[in-house]
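Standup notes
- HV: blocked on the assembly model, inputs below
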Amino acid sequence: MQQIFHEIKINTKGQGLYDFTNETASWINKQKINNGILNINILHTSASLVIQENADSDVLYDLKNFFNKLVPMENKLYKHTTEGKDDMPAHIKSALTNNQLTLSIKEKKLILGAWQGLYLFEHRIEKHTRLLSHHFIGD
Amino acid sequence: MQQIFHEIKINTKGQGLYDFTNETASWINKQKINNGILNINILHTSASLVIQENADSDVLYDLKNFFNKLVPMENKLYKHTTEGKDDMPAHIKSALTNNQLTLSIKEKKLILGAWQGLYLFEHRIEKHTRLLSHHFIGD
Amino acid sequence: MQQIFHEIKINTKGQGLYDFTNETASWINKQKINNGILNINILHTSASLVIQENADSDVLYDLKNFFNKLVPMENKLYKHTTEGKDDMPAHIKSALTNNQLTLSIKEKKLILGAWQGLYLFEHRIEKHTRLLSHHFIGD
């Protein structure tokens, strides 16, 4: 059994879904582990992770839009307002989606459906650098 | 350490929660791994996975009903409408629940609470065949 | 490769978020595994798990408050009402968050962001004892 730890940085430019499937897949491809578990954790609580459809970009637009309506950016709704009107909604959207994804790797390939991609879901308005911990365990 | 990959197919007949605990448990029971991690990924983004109460079927009805009210099937709310009025809501419900579950196996048994079952949550109206990737790693 | 199974009990006193990061971290620190995967499952479906900000307790208040507004405790909305007005909403909140978390351990430390903590999210009004299965696999 081998284990490898790695960090991938994603620069975000406001709210929306950022596909990082290729970054992860190409890193996996360079490792000496063929089969195993890949555990990805986002080290922030105002952005999150989802597996979503990668075929039609309208899906990504509708997702962002739905979450913005479900969790309004209105200071009067929250006590935690010191970090900006988008911060508390970002924590809630993070709780509604995922902070981590556990994926299976078979013969150096991510097991994903034909139309699935890995997305970082940025919930903050301003630019951010987001860190994704990658932990690959297998043989 | 050993690893086994497997796929379980579930035929769904419209929206609702489908218990697949027995399919998974009986497959686990036939493997030569006694203790380990079982990673289950659904290879679709319009159906999802949840661990839920298996005692009262009203819970399953209320879950389906709640998600249908939270994410209405109305084309005017979405840009992505080409695949049917239930498709974009299905992607959103998938983002609100889980695409994957990671479970612990001890002495060939799933570690679950007394009232917990594994469910596929189908969000589409028509019949579908859903694939659940199973990846068992342990010894 | 080694595997260790363990259970952590958390006594809750009504709805809210309970930080168990220290319990988990101090247990990890006593084990002979240095690097590996920690799989945590809550053995209940009326309480759940989230990774959230641990800096400002207002965030925890706002989270509890948001989920209570999103999923009202009103019997007329649900069929499953025999276990109390807070039970069906608890199952729904559990489906909207997580029943399990998979974490990475590097040199006996949880990989978490600077402001991240592990929380049990209790959705029931009365006192409960909650069991968190811990399964640590690595070397």
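- HV (later): unblocked. The CA atoms of residues 40 and 134 of chain C lie 5 Å apart. Helices of chain C lie at 21-30, 57-70, 87-96.
- Next: hand off to the docking folks.
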